Amino acid sequence: MEAQTVIEGNRLIAEFMEIEKCSDPKHADNPCYFINDTYRVAAYLEYHTSWDWLMPVYKKIITVWNEHYCAKRNDVSKAATMAFRLIQNKICHSDIDEAVIAVFDFIKLHNTTKNKTP
Fold this sequence. Notes:
mainly alpha
């Protein structure tokens, strides 16, 4: 995975997880977050390499999917359900590289549609 993809994806996850962001201007291209009692820049967050980091994100995605998409019957929910099922599939196959990309895609979809779902 390319470094910029890692930074952008980890940033998406950190914001989705509502992790406190630090305001250090020297990290404008690589934002930093306060997590596990320390500040880390997005490139060094471990969502893309550690199941221990990724599974709490998946747990929140389950909650978001249930609350926003599960019972609805529209194009947005269908797309969210497909993205959610892809995450499940990649986790079942123990493929963290593909699972984290699927997580990035779900969060992007959610961020663009969360205010549009009735």
